Amino acid sequence: MDDTPGVHADERRALDRRILSLAVPALGALVAEPLFVLIDSAVVGRLGTAELAGLTIASTVLVTIVSIFVFLAYATTGAVARRLGAGDTRGALAVGLDGIWLALGLGVLTCAVAIGVAEPIVTALGASADVTPHAVAYLRASAPGIPGMLVVLAATGALRGLQDTRTPLVVAVVGAVVNTIGSITLVYGFNMGIAGSGLATALTQIGMGVVLAAIVLRGARARGVGLRPHPAGIMANARAGTPLLIRTLTLRAAILLTVATATKLGDATLAAHQIVNAVWGLTAFALDALAIAAQALVGHGLGARDVRQVRAVTRRCLQWGMGAGAVIGIAIAGLGWFVTPLFTSDPQVQRAAAISLVVIGLLLPLAAWPFVLDGVLMGAGDGRFLAWAGVITLVAYLPMVGAVWLWAPDGAAGLAWLWVAFAGGFIGARAITTGLRARGTAWMVLGA
Known about the structure:
This protein is mainly α.
């Protein structure tokens, strides 16, 4: 893409520094969750193919449950950034606190539901008799960490809106180290099997939530902001997040359909899908770091009524995103055959995963476009459009994944076609809808 029009070289370099100062630390925080999945995959994969397949089912359900409430981060970031851009720091912190209270309440309720329905959900996803007990054990062991996960989302969203992405980075790095040590210790040291891996992740997420919430609370107290929950503010956060909830549900529905299709293709294919999905999650969240920078800067720019800055941020983040997608994609496509043995010793699983890693490596630059534009539109508070776009793209994906379900062969070829449908078809549809929206001005609502 050409250089940002209307922005001089010095301004562009200053803008790059602002983007990268937010995106690089955000990268570490964003990859924490998929990094946990990668760590769990490596640890559990050594227990056997059935355990790894069980982790595929359970981790997909767990991430789906948590991702339903990802609006706690996205809506909070945009709202806090707008208040900050308008010069209302106390109001920004108050919004962040209300988001944390909402996250805690939703997390406790969701944890109880997840434990109760673990087995029916796993069964509904088509897990075999060998895989089901492992999936249920992991899901129930990790469910107590859900309140911590949701608080992490809300507190991280508040800090991003305040343009602090370094604190979540530090917490994420420490969390990854603790999770690795805990997972290995509980799985092998205490012979807890796959449940030990889930419990280690839960304890880590609870600790991360406590630390991040305490940091936001300390900042609020220093500004004289009341720490008690405010029902009106909590309800406002919930209303603002509802469209993003719908958008997330459509995304998770597409992912669940993809996992269900991989399940239909056999246990070995499902195990390979777990490896590919873990790598995809890591790289997708890495690209999403630019979306976080765009979200914070766009929200701040709209709050400050600076349309020119908003356009410049949007274009420059897209340039960075597509370039990063190309570089990361080449690395994934080239290194797939060397990465897969780290997760499993089964040659059939290794081959299927390696071929599909080539597929996602080639398609990753395309994925950068909707990831960045999602951040731009969320920063603008354009949740209603994102909800409708999510429904449209899900409908467009149904015949693609249906074709794989009906006609794709088992094994490596079937998994490759599945990822062509998801990373090419579904993500491509998202690129078209968000791209058309970003070209207009209807999403640029100015002020706090």
